[in-house]
Each structure stands twice: as C-alpha cells, then as structure tokens.
Amino acid sequence: MSARSRPNCGGVRHLLRLIRGDDEIRRSL
C-alpha cells in the first residue's frame, strides 16, 4: 500500500475523506 500511496498522494487523501465520511470537506472543495 505504501508504494501506491506515494504516487497517488491525492488519491489517498480522497480515499481517507471518503472513509471518514467528511461530506463537509467535499462541499468545500
């Protein structure tokens, strides 16, 4: 997973937000 996390930094952050369920962050972006 660490290997994928490095190139997909943005993807990892998006996944973390999806897992957390931070709908507020989505609306802000």
Characterise the protein shown here.
With about 30 residues, the chain is mainly α. The chain has one domain. It has helices at about 1-5, 10-20, 25-29. The radius of gyration is 10 Å and the shape is flat. About 0% of the residues are buried.
What's this, in brief?
The chain is mostly helical and 29 residues long. Helices cover 76% and strands 0% of the residues.
Give the SSE order as H and E letters. HHH
Oligomer: single chain
Overall 3D form: flat
Approximate strand percentage: under 5%
N-end to C-end Cα span: 26 Å
Structural class: mainly alpha
Q: How many domains would you count in the coordinates?
A: 1
**Biggest β-sheet: count, sense, barrel?**
none
Q: How many distinct beta strands?
A: 0
> What share of residues is helical?
over 70%
Unreliable stretches covering 5 or more consecutive residues: none
Backbone CA Rg? 10 Å
Rounded mean pLDDT score: 68
Total helices: the number is: 3
